[in-house]
Amino acid sequence: MLLEFSCSNVRSIREEVKLDLRAKNDDTFEANLINFENDRINAACAIYGSNATGKTSILTAMGMMKNMVISSHLLQPGDMLIRIPHRLWQEKPTGYSMTFVWKKIRYEYSFSYNDTHILKETLSYYPNGRITVIFNRDGNKAKVNEKFSRIETLCKEKLVQNKLLLSLIANNLNYEEILNAFLFYKEGLVILMNDNNNWLEYSANKMEHDKIIKDMFLKFMKDTGSDIQDIKTKSERRVLTSQELPKDMPPAIRAMVLNQPTIFTTVKTIYKGFSLDIAEESMGTQKLIRLMCPIMDIFQKDKTFVCDEIESHLHPLIIRQLITRFIRGKGSKAQIICATHNVEMLDLNLFRRDQIYFTDINPDFHRTKLFSLSTLPCRKDENVQKKYLESKYCKVPKDVWNV
Fold it and tell me: Are 90 and 58 in contact (CB under 8 A)?
């Protein structure tokens, strides 16, 4: 469960921006909040704004932080760090920070870095409701809590300038508290930035081996108005034959591919009297087949789902019902954070004011601003969709064809 994320110097983001999922002083939909210790946490957040104002930059920053944590220990000496700084702040470090809950423990984790070095890194947790610093790193030196003393030896042996200490510890030492922080990034934070993902393989495998999931998916499709009666899936791992490869493929690549087993996934939707391969289905149906099994897993395991333009290829009512499932999901601590242009969801009968964020570009140095509707004058009965389209909260396109 994500409580707060902040970042600086990433793409269009220059100075620090902050996304805070902790509920503000608003009694709207109070029963739908997630309670943890003394905090009330929003289960959903929607980010609105015009094109090129930084919505995707914020979600991309989350993805970059996640990828760095789970893969940092694999870097070789001299490898450059993945970074996309603001064009006017190339020489400044990039920074990320998250406050989150995983396995019922609250963590705070942050780091800053440049193209070659991790500059600062801190991991803290709240084992008894009080903050305890696990380690505080400055360059290649780290101050370590005495409970985790073996980290000091690890630092002497393996800590180098381009590796995150959290990643090193999780992959070399058996500290459950630190491993859980790492696993939030590896398993608990699910990020979908575009439709080009490998979720089809996951969904096909789930529906092939889990009848409950398959039945849930078929019921979901029926409720959307689809007349799909069944779905047949199969995944197999095999080596390609030379006849299956393009004739003009370079010999070196051909030799490499022929020696590597590849997973082949087939999905067929069954209708009354005929069937279709997934490639013959509409883009919307293809997306639902890829998307719904992972989302069911997110609900069941209380994960945080981050998605850019979730509305692409899908009917607005399906998206609204999906968001509602997160917000109103009884007994679930799953979350959704989405960047969207779907103004039909911009509705205070769906969202609280502190669940709606806007991005805008400050013309001074072309930098992203991020702010919540709860920070603006806004009544509980306000028509926020109308005011958004009138540019009352942030600038939106207007009369673009009036030339």
Answer: no
